[in-house]
Amino acid sequence: MNNKYDVVIIGGGPAGLTAGIYTSRDNLKSLIIEKGIIGGNMNNAEIIDNYPGFPEGVNGPELANLMHRQAKRYGLETIAAEVIAIKDLGNKKLLQTSDGDIIARAVIIAGGSEKLKLSIPGEKEFTGRGVSYCTTCDAFFFRNKNVVVVGGGNSAIYEAMHLTKFASKIYIIHRRNQLRATAILQERARAETKIKFILDTIVKEIQGKDFVQKLVLENVKTGKKSTLEVDGVFISIGLKPNTDFVKDLLSLDKQGHIITDENMNTETAGILAAGDIRSGAIRQITTAAGDGTIAAIEAKRFIDDQ
Ligand SMILES: Cc1cc2nc3c(=O)[nH]c(=O)nc-3n(C[C@H](O)[C@H](O)[C@H](O)COP(=O)(O)OP(=O)(O)OC[C@H]3O[C@@H](n4cnc5c(N)ncnc54)[C@H](O)[C@@H]3O)c2cc1C
Fold first, then answer.
1. For position 2, what pLDDT does the model report?
2. What contacts 35, CB < 8 A, 6 or more positions away?
3. Does pLDDT of 219 surpass 90?
4. How far apart are the first and last CA of the chain?
5. How far apart are the CA of 81 and the centre of ligand 1, in A?
6. What are the backbone dihedrals phi and psi of residue 196, each rounded to the nearest 5 degrees, phi first?
7. Which end of the chain is more exposed for a tag (fewer CB within 10 A), N or C?
8. What pLDDT digit, counting tens, does each position of 131-169 carry?
9. Which of 9, 17, 42 to mutate to test the pocket of ligand 1 (most atoms within 8 A of CB)?
């Protein structure tokens, strides 16, 4: 593999793919390194209603595929690997990856975020055996079953609504007595007869034999413990930025997002950040694409100035 590129983009979500469209179309030799599935979190959205150009909405994986095809048309390369560290060598950057070292003149970090874990007994053990973080991927396996969604934000409600097409009963478990989701989403969820709410409650443990069978719950106000028999648990309690691999190189905010200026520059010249991974980002597909555009233009400017 030729391991020298003008621009290396870490992450193939909408921020990385948009940056790739711009840099490769600008004749910069460009590479996306993606550790998971091209499309990033778009793959978790069954239907995207707010990305311009799709009046009937668009399926998330389909939008991801369209963006990738568009970037490849201009010569963007993609490899499946994880970036483990970046070393700043001045006008060159060294990327250590699970597939060997790669040299870049400029780097755009578009690593987005991943689902937070509950970190309770049984969670790891039953992941893939009843515990899931993605309804679009796994809801189908819970046809006519009873499931739980843990969380109270918009994503949790979306996940529960999606599950109504498959499961027979969906419990939304939230640790507070009010949901964080927008009023309109809450209204829609409350109108669904299959959805039941268990508020002021946390999940203490996930139990089962080969697959999930029951949850141990605790009411946070009374401390009273109870059990709930279910076949599946979807965990939707928020996202954490994928910044562990740059925490010693770049400044991060309190939540771990990369701090940039308005042109996506980090404090290290030639290293930019775009999309959900960036401090202050709005965290939508349109804004990730916007950040990717700015980062690509700024990366070209940096290379031209060298
Ligand atoms: C369930 C759900 C539904 C959503 N619905 C909508 C919606 O309808 N409309 C909307 O506008 N937004 C929606 N969003 C938000 C939207 O998906 C995100 O804002 C957007 O995907 C962020 O794009 P990104 O490119 O910054 O990061 P991501 O999409 O998170 O992509 C980052 C990519 O980087 C990769 N990566 C991370 N670290 C490394 C590494 N070290 N090495 C290599 N690769 C790495 C990851 O595997 C990932 O593929 C939704 C999100 C979720 C979770």
1. 61
2. 80, 81, 82, 83, 98
3. yes
4. 25
5. 17
6. -120, 145
7. N
8. 999 887 789 999 999 999 999 999 899 999 999 999 999
9. 42
Atom of ligand 1 nearest to the CA of 286: 11
pTM: 0.84
In the chain, the domains with their CATH numbers are 4-114+240-305 (3.50.50.60), 117-235 (3.50.50.60)
Any ligand 1 atom below 6 A from CB of 32: no
Asked if the model's pLDDT at residue 97 lies above 90, the reply is: yes
Assess whether 200 carries a catalytic annotation.
no
- The token pair at 106 is 């400029």
Kindly tell me if the per-residue pLDDT of 48 is higher than 90. no
- pLDDT tens for each residue of 181-200: 999 999 999 999 999 999 99
C-alpha distances out from residue 161 to 101, 184, 227, 228, 305, Å:
44, 13, 24, 20, 51
Structural contact between residues 138 and 158, judged by C-beta atoms closer than 8 angstroms: no
Per-residue burial over 59-87, b = 16 or more CB atoms within 10 Å of its CB, e = otherwise: bbbebbeebbebbbebebbbbebbbeebe
Is 122 close to ligand 1, i.e. is its CB under 6 Å away?
Answer: no
SS (H, E, C) 78-97: EEECCEEEEEECCCCEEEEE
